[in-house]
Specification:
Number of strands: 14
Oligomer: single chain
Strand order of the largest sheet: 2-1-3-11-4
CATH architecture of the largest domain: 3-Layer(aba) Sandwich
Largest sheet: 5 strands, mixed
Number of domains: 2
CATH topology of the largest domain: D-Maltodextrin-Binding Protein, domain 2
Number of helices: 19
Radius of gyration: 23 Å
Length: 549
C-alpha cells in the first residue's frame, strides 16, 4: 500500500493539530499562595482591540459576518506591503512555541531563519517544543524563574495546562495598555485579527494578556473519500438512518467506512454535533451552564456510534490507531472517512492527488431535525510576552505585527514560504512551490506561524475547484455550527482539574462505543464527574458569563 512520506505526515499534523493533540495528564504547578483571582466576574473588563480590516487583494469568494471564510481560487499576483519598515532594533529575542515538525536546522545553517531574522531586524533564538513534549516542557517553564521566561511564548490551545491562567496573569506582560481599544492602531496587522479570536482567547481578570492565533469557525470535521461514500449511496440531506446504511454498505472486504484514532472517541464530536448535543458547554437564556455529558442528545450520539461499531463500519483498530496511521489508511482507501480539524483541508487535498477526492461531510439529521457541526475555538492558542520595559514590549509587539501579516502580502509569503528562488519557485498559477531546500527549511519545522498569524483564508494551490467546494460547504454548515459556550471564560476548577475530569468521561465513552461497558455507565460516570468538579465548573463559567465577557 502507498506509504506516507515524513513531509506529508508533518504537514498534516501541523494543520490538523486540533484532532491529534489529545490532552494528557500533567502535574499541576503552583504559581503563588492562592494562585490569584483569574475570574472576570466583578472586574472592569478591558475593551477588545478595535478591529480594522487590513487592505489586500480582494478574494474571489466573499466571506460573511457569520463565519464563512474568504476564498482565493488563485494566488494573488500583486502582493501588498503590510509593514513599512523593519520592526527590530538589532537586539536578541528569545521565542518559544509548539511544533509539529522536525527540529529546524541551526540558525547559522538555515537560510529561511536568516531571511526572517533580517526582515524582523533582530536576532531570534527559537526554541521549538515537539507536540509530544509540550506539556512536560511547559510545566518546567511555568515552574521556573520568571527571568528565564522567553520574550515571546506561544500557549498552545491543544492542552489544558493546570493553572494556566494564573501563570499568565502572574508572569506575562499585561497587554491591555498596548492593545485594548484604539491602542492597537499602532499595530495594524494585529488590529486585523477579528474580534472573535480575541473573544475565544478570553480575558484573565478582566485584562488582555495575549495575542490570539485566529482560526476558522468549523472545527472537528468528518473528512470523506468522496468516491467511496458516493458509491455506497451518500446523498445530501441524509438522515442518521441513511448514514448508518451507507456506512454499513461501504464496509467489508477489509475496507471500512469509518476510521478513528486514539483519543478521538470514534469521532464523537462530529456525531454529537449531528445529534445537536452541546459541544462542551451550553448556556441557557438565564445564564445557567449545562455540560454535554448531562445531555440526552450526547448520550444518544454515543449509543448511535456503538450501533455503527456493531455493524462493522469502524476499522477494528479504532481504539489503538495513531492519527498519522489513520491518515495513511485514509489515503490508501482502507478507511473511507476520518475526523480531523477543518484546518487540515490543505494537506487533505494536496496529499490525495491521484488517490482520491476528499470532501467535508454534511451533517446528517436526527428525528427530523437537521444536524449541526462543531464550532471550533476561534483561537488556536495565544502568544504572551515576558514582562519588560515599555520600549521592549513595543518592540516585541512590532515583531508579532510583522508575523501577523495578511494573506496576499509580501510579509506573509516570506514567513510562510521563505525566499523565492531559494525556498520556492512559482507554479503555473503563480503560487509558491517548495524547492528541495524549502521542504526542509519551512514554516512547519520553524513555525513562525505559531507566534502570530493573520486571519485564515481558503486557498489550495492549483486547485480552484477545491476552494469553491469548501466555500460552498461552509455556506451550508456555518448556520448550524454549535459553539462551546465556555470559550473565552475562566474556571479555576477547569484549569486545575479539567484534564483529569475530561479523561474520566472520555474513557467511559470509548468503552461504551467499543462494547466493553454498557451505555448505563455514562450516567454513573457523569454523576462522579459532577461531584468531582463538574458542578463547580458550571457555576464558575456562569459567573464569568454574567460579567458580560
Amino acid at each position: 500500500m502507498p506509504s506516507m512520506s515524513r513531509r506529508t505526515l508533518l504537514r498534516s499534523m501541523a494543520v490538523g493539530g486540533a484532532a491529534i493533540a489529545a490532552p494528557g495528564a500533567l502535574t499541576a504547578c503552583s504559581t503563588g499562595a492562592d494562585d490569584g483571582d483569574v475570574s472576570n466576574a466583578g472586574k472592569k473588563l478591558a475593551p477588545w482591540p478595535a478591529y480594522r480590516a487590513v487592505s489586500g487583494p480582494a478574494p474571489d469568494l466573499a466571506p460573511t459576518d457569520a463565519g464563512v471564510q474568504a476564498g482565493y481560487t488563485s494566488y494573488p499576483s500583486d502582493l501588498v506591503t503590510s509593514v513599512s519598515r523593519s520592526p527590530g532594533d538589532g537586539s536578541t529575542v528569545k521565542v518559544m512555541s509548539v511544533t509539529f515538525g522536525t527540529p529546524p536546522k541551526a540558525a547559522s545553517a538555515n537560510r529561511f531563519w536568516a531571511a526572517v531574522e533580517k526582515a524582523l531586524g533582530v536576532k531570534i533564538e527559537y526554541t521549538v517544543i515537539p507536540q509530544t513534549d509540550y506539556q512536560k516542557k511547559m510545566a518546567t517553564v511555568m515552574a521556573g524563574d520568571p527571568g528565564d521566561l522567553p520574550d515571546i511564548l506561544n500557549v498552545f490551545s491543544g492542552f489544558v495546562l493546570p493553572r494556566e491562567a494564573q501563570f499568565v496573569q502572574r508572569r506575562a506582560e499585561d497587554l491591555t495598555p498596548f492593545l485594548s481599544g484604539a491602542a492597537i492602531e499602532d499595530y495594524p496587522n494585529l488590529a486585523g485579527i477579528p474580534t472573535h479570536a480575541w473573544r475565544d482567547m478570553g480575558r484573565i481578570g478582566g485584562r488582555i494578556h495575549g495575542v490570539p492565533l485566529e482560526r476558522p469557525l468549523p472545527g472537528s470535521t468528518l473528512w470523506l473519500n468522496q468516491g467511496f461514500f458516493a458509491d455506497a449511496g451518500m446523498k445530501e440531506g441524509w438522515t442518521a438512518q441513511d448514514f448508518a446504511a451507507v456506512a454499513k454498505k461501504g464496509s467489508g472486504g477489509k475496507k471500512y467506512a469509518l476510521g478513528a484514532a486514539v483519543g478521538s472517541l470514534f469521532g464523537n464530536a462530529v456525531h454529537s454535533a449531528a445529534h445537536n448535543s452541546p459541544q462542551g458547554w451550553a448556556v441557557d437564556k438565564d445564564g445557567t451552564f449545562h455540560s454535554q455529558y448531562l445531555d440526552e442528545r450526547f448520550k444518544a450520539a454515543v449509543a448511535y456510534q456503538a450501533q455503527l461499531r456493531r455493524s462493522g463500519a469502524y476499522h477494528p483498530d479504532a481504539t489503538s490507531l495513531s492519527q498519522p496511521d489513520l491518515y495513511t489508511l485514509f489515503l490508501n482507501g482502507t478507511v473511507g472517512s476520518m475526523q480531523d480539524g477543518f484546518g487540515a483541508y490543505l494537506p487533505k487535498y494536496l496529499d490525495s492527488k491521484g488517490l482520491l477526492t476528499p470532501a467535508a461531510a454534511l451533517p446528517y439529521g436526527v428525528d427530523g431535525t437537521p444536524g449541526g457541526i462543531v464550532a471550533a475555538r476561534r483561537s488556536f492558542g495565544y502568544t504572551i510576552l515576558k514582562k519588560a520595559k515599555k520600549e521592549r514590549v513595543e518592540l516585541l509587539l512590532r515583531i508579532l505585527d510583522y508575523l501577523a501579516a495578511p494573506f496576499g502580502s509580501k510579509e506573509w509569503e516570506l514567513v510562510h514560504y521563505g525566499v523565492e528562488g531559494t525556498h520556492f519557485t512559482r507554479g503555473k498559477d503563480g503560487s509558491p512551490d517548495a524547492t528541495k531546500l524549502g521542504q526542509v527549511e519551512n514554516n512547519t519545522n520553524l513555525p513562525w506561524k505559531y507566534l502570530a498569524e493573520g486571519p485564515q483564508v481558503l486557498f489550495v494551490p492549483g486547485m480552484p475547484d477545491a476552494v469553491r467546494a469548501l466555500h460552498s460547504w461552509q455556506q451550508k454548515v456555518v448556520p448550524v455550527a454549535i459553539r462551546n459556550a465556555s470559550y473565552g471564560l475562566q474556571s479555576r476548577t477547569n484549569t486545575a482539574q479539567g484534564t483529569t475530569l475530561k479523561a474520566l468521561m472520555e474513557d467511559t465513552v470509548t468503552g461504551v462505543v467499543a462494547g466493553r461497558i454498557p451505555l448505563s455507565e455514562l450516567d454513573a460516570t457523569a454523576k462522579k464527574w459532577r461531584a468531582r468538579g463538574g458542578d463547580r465548573m458550571a457555576e464558575e463559567y456562569a459567573k464569568d458569563y454574567a460579567a458580560g465577557v
